[in-house]
Amino acid sequence: MTAKLTRRHFLTLSGVTAAGALAYGATRVDWDDLLSAAADSPLASGAGVLVVVTLYGGNDGLNTVVPAADSAYQDARPDLAYRPEEVLDLGDGLGLNPGLKGLKGLWDEKGLAVVRGVGYPTPDHSHFRSMAIWQTASPRTSVPTGWLGRWLDTTGADPLRALSVEPVLPPMLAGAKTAAASLPLGGLKLPTGKLGEAFQALGTPSAGEEPWQARAAKSITDLHSAARILGGAVHDAAEDDPDEKRDKGASAGGASALGAQLDAVAALIEAEVPTRAYSVSLGGFDTHADERDTQQRLLTELDTALTAFAKRLKGTDRGRQAVVLVYSEFGRRVHANASDGTDHGTAGPVFLLGAPVKGGFFGDQPSLTDLDNGDLKQTTDFRDIYATVLQDVLDTDPGKVIEDHRGRIDGLLL
Fold first, then answer.
1. What are the start and end residues of every segment in region (Disordered) (predicted)?
2. Fewer CB within 10 Å, N side or C side of the chain?
3. What single-letter DSSP state applies at residue 355?
4. Are 107 and 96 in contact (CB under 8 A)?
5. Each residue of 132-176: pLDDT tens digit?
6. What predicted TM-score, i.e. pTM, was given to this entire model?
7. Of 51, 13, 49, 21, which Cα lies nearest the Cα of 282?
8. String of b and e for 94-121 (b: at least 16 CB within 10 Å)?
């Protein structure tokens, strides 16, 4: 394991360089660009929206969706395992990590799908290679484009159809002809005091005004909404290597401030921006030591952000069109290591949530005794999930994006 690996280093080494997507601030847009797009061609009624959440570092799936009742799990992790009474019961002998109380509420409402045993053929324990595989959807051959980048290529050249709420685009959004847009969260400040009050008053609608005047007023109101959301964001695009500030589990890249990222995405969906795919991330999951506290802290951050986001999505028609996909590049080894952590593994769970999602378990739970050299055996191919959301959320023939793969997950989306 490399001692320190930043997000940008990963992007450079992953091999995905199409369309200049790795340039700092490539295809960079601001709030005004997005609001103008919403005014000119708003998100169509009924058009699905996909929000991809990447957990960088290799999240330990066995301590996320926990087989606490399985004696093999307890034996493999004597000091790291959660006891049955500690987890949030899902049935089938499984429970959610105690940091995921909000997701347990969504589960109880049939609003959370857990796809079990997700991985890819011939797994690789390298962060670089495994994340490149997940983001390109190409397990056996290196390709220079991401899976959502190829979706962009097949559906038109408009980069605003996909958006990363980060200063550098992830490889998944790099196409051969089109790179998605980027909206870095560096904070947004507006005038305060009497000048600020006067400026905000310009957004007040007036009876009998011309359409262009109403649109100008609305843009001022939207700008103040953006300032409330983005003004507190801590993800500073001017920082060179913000990922290195995380003290544990941070060696595999990814951003923090997930709640701020998802707040921005929610505001854009509510504003009817025509973006159909969004990318956000949370890093720090490379838990080789002292895993329980580190992972539970990160999962609590994930839970808080996702729960608030899901609640907000339910409040608007456009929000109810969105599906959230949460994944990590690999799970961890079954047996704990000598440092109260776990090492790089293979298969793990994937979460999906949103109004179009049918809650429950999908895929088989991997055996903890029938292992592949100490690793879990994959029971669900990750491309099955991609193909399902391409078809049912993004209204695209998966064969145009993922070659030579016909798998789907039946019943996952309503």
1. 234-254
2. C
3. T
4. yes
5. 999 999 998 889 899 999 999 999 878 999 999 975 688 899 998
6. 0.85
7. 51
8. bbbbbbbebbbbbbeeebbbbbbbbbbe
Predicted pLDDT of residue 152: 94
d(CA 406, CA 347): 20
**Among positive and negative, which fits the CA dihedral 140, 142, 148, 151?**
negative
Cα–Cα distance for residue pair 50/180, rounded to 1 Å: 14
For residue 167, give both structure tokens. Answer: 């200063």
Q: Which of 279, 280, 17 is nearest to 174 (CA)?
A: 17
What is the DSSP-derived secondary structure letter of residue 66?
A: E
d(CA 156, CA 142): 24
222-232: string of b/e by CB count within 10 Å (b at 16+)? Answer: bbbbbbebbee
Find the farthest-apart pair of alpha carbons in the chain and give their distance in angstroms, rounded: 74
Give me 387's structure tokens: 């193909």
The pLDDT value recorded for residue 12 is 41
Angle between helix axes 31-40 and 211-230 (nearest 10 degrees) is 140
* pLDDT value at residue 101: 98
pLDDT greater at residue 181 or residue 246: 181
3-state secondary structure of 185: coil
List of residues 6+ apart from 187 with CB closer than 8 A:
230, 231, 232, 233, 236
- Residue 333 structure tokens: 């080894």
Q: Is the dihedral of CA 244, 290, 102, 334 positive or negative?
A: positive
Q: Report phi then psi at 310, rounded to 5.
A: -60, -40
d(C-alpha 20, C-alpha 265), whole Å: 24
Please state the separation of Cα 29 from the chain's center in Å: 20
Report the alpha-carbon distance of residue 350 to residue 337 in Å, rounded: 24
281 closest CA partner among 167, 407, 145 = 167
What are phi and psi for residue 269, nearest 5 degrees?
-65, -45
Reduced to 3 states (helix: H, G, I; strand: E, B; else coil), residue 228 is helix
Question: Distances from the Cα of 346 to the Cαs of 59, 153, 197, 373, in angstroms?
Answer: 10, 30, 55, 11
Side chain identity at residue 290, one-letter code: D
Q: How far apart are CA 326 and CA 245, in angstroms?
A: 23
CA distances from 199 to 188, 224, 230, 319 (A): 15, 10, 18, 29
For 124, counting Cβ atoms within 10 Å of its Cβ (0-12 exposed, 13-18 middle, 19+ buried), the class is middle
Letter for the amino acid at 333?
R
